[in-house]
Amino acid sequence: NHQILDVGTGPGFGAFAFAPKARHVTALDWRSEMLALARTEADRRRFKEITFVEGDPHALPFPDDSFDIVASAAALHHFTSPAKAIQEMARTCVPGGAVAIEDVVTSEQDIRARYHNRIERLRDRTHQRLLSLSEVISLLGRAGLQVCRVEVQDSIREYNEWLGVTRPPPRRSERIHHLLQGSVEQDLCGLSVQGEDDTFIFIQRVAWVLAVKSA
């Protein structure tokens, strides 16, 4: 029976997952086109307990201590300042409430992380930067939150399926292919890339981090 805020809701799937068990869900995004998709899908699913808000994740338009749970799924790497966004998530969370982050995380090795983010920026121009797991945990701590649970799961991805999500133009696709090919033998991007027939298979690490705000 919680009040929940979903930051960077995108097409709304995080909000939809919360809706059946929440008193109310506020789904925020800075991209009007994404909110339009989310509203359409919410209407189709007949969700009445979701409010969609266009707003900046770095300056959330809500008072302090407004939500029992503040969550963000697959959005942190799109924020220009993850630190500021997490501080805002902590600010709007009630004392004793929870802040939950889910995102792909990159290598703890800086060279591999830079190579990985170079590939991701070629694939999606809205990509800012994937963080390492230790960076996510550190930013939550700096926001005054106590991390209480961390889970990491490997997600096996196939090159064409992964590329098809954003459909970059041919020249960028060729560059991505070249960078992944270069990572097969030495794992330059930390994704354990393997060539398979005419495609690549690689592993993304998805992290779920739950933190609480002191009561």
Mean pLDDT: 97
Order of helices and strands: EHEHEEHEHHEHHEE
Apparent shape: globular
List low-pLDDT spans.
none
Number of helices: 7
Name the assembly state: single chain
**Largest pleated sheet:** 8 strands, mixed
What portion of residues is helical? 25-40%
What is the number of strand segments? 8
Content of β-strand:
25-35%
| Computed Rg | 18 Å
Helices and strands: which structural class?
alpha/beta
Head-to-tail CA distance between termini: 19 Å
Question: How would you summarize the topology of this molecule?
Answer:
Layout: E1 3-7, H1 13-18, E2 24-29, H2 32-45, E3 50-54, E4 67-73, H3 82-92, E5 93-105, H4 110-123, H5 133-142, E6 145-158, H6 159-164, H7 170-182, E7 194-196, E8 199-213
Parallel strand pairs: 1-2, 1-4, 2-3, 4-5
Antiparallel strand pairs: 5-8, 6-8, 7-8
Helix pairs in contact: 4-7
